[in-house]
Design a protein that fits this description.
By secondary structure, this protein is α/β, with parallel strands linked by helices. 31% of the residues lie in helices and 27% in strands.
């Protein structure tokens, strides 16, 4: 009967070492091959397909603003960085970027939809339908009919919401809100298309709207006492607890006219 000789420990260690080295070598070769493959010039980004909102952007403007900021191949391009590059282009609110094999990118754009001007005279900012403030070339915007909104930094959504709440109330009286402002101390004021300045006071819509409704409900009755139309309003202050103060063009008084209802 033959006896089986045990493999010496040093031989086992040597075999194990050789196996490990072979695996490491094969792994390094595989990594190198993948790197060479993914960095091949055949996979360099050759073009970008753009879909979605492109009213204010075209291939020329996008190439000038975005292309220099996109580097790599189909496999190595940083999609997050590419998305940031597209969203940095004028008018672009959101961009969704996908790889398009073998050497293209596919981008879907959502542009800002301007609903109001923001700030004051000389301010080239707008407010989109989400209440977000953005910069744009005002020469590309039809400004007719756009109200002017303003407020502290970051209050765009709040100011737009108040405008959307108050405008229908005045529109029902054939008046248009041209300007709406929120002060740093939280007080609201607006200007109508006929030039009237209205102080609304502080608070959210649940506090401001009842004042506006009370004002508009009694406005016709109050101005008719002086033989005037609602368009004759010069200013009004709705901050009084039980009424409002009003000034009419062509009507002089020795004290503030207050309508209490």
């Amino acid at each position: 009967m033959k006896s089986v000789l045990a493999t010496p420990v040093d031989v086992k260690l040597m075999n194990l070492t050789v196996a490990v080295l072979v695996l490491v070598f094969v792994g390094l070769c595989a990594i190198a091959a993948v790197r060479v493959f993914t960095r091949a010039t055949a996979f360099d980004i050759q073009g970008i397909t753009v879909t979605g909102d492109t009213r204010h952007n075209n291939s020329v403007t996008l190439r000038a603003n975005v292309a220099p900021r996109i580097a790599g191949t189909f496999f190595t391009v940083d999609l997050a960085r590419a998305r940031t590059a597209f969203e940095g282009a004028p008018w672009v609110r959101r961009a969704i970027v996908h790889r398009d094999f073998p050497n293209r990118l596919r981008v879907s754009l959502q542009e800002h939809q301007p609903v109001a001007l923001w700030g004051g005279e000389g301010d080239a900012r707008l407010v989109n339908s989400f209440g977000e403030v953005f910069e744009a070339n005002l020469g590309e915007v039809d400004q007719d009919g756009l109200p002017m909104l303003s407020g502290p930094e970051g209050t765009g959504p709040e100011v737009l919401a108040m405008y959307r709440a108050t405008q229908p109330l005045f529109a029902a009286m054939d008046m248009q809100v041209e300007q709406l402002a929120l002060s740093g101390r939280g007080s609201w004021s607006l200007r109508l298309d006929a030039g009237a300045e209205i102080e609304l006071g502080r608070g959210g819509p649940d506090e401001v709207l009842p004042r506006v409704e009370r004002f508009l409900k009694t406005l016709t009755q109050v101005v008719s006492r002086y033989g005037r139309q609602a368009s004759a309003i010069e200013s009004a202050d709705l901050r009084h607890e039980n009424g409002y103060a009003i000034r009419l063009r062509g009507v002089s008084t020795t004290q503030t006219d207050v309508a209490k209802k």
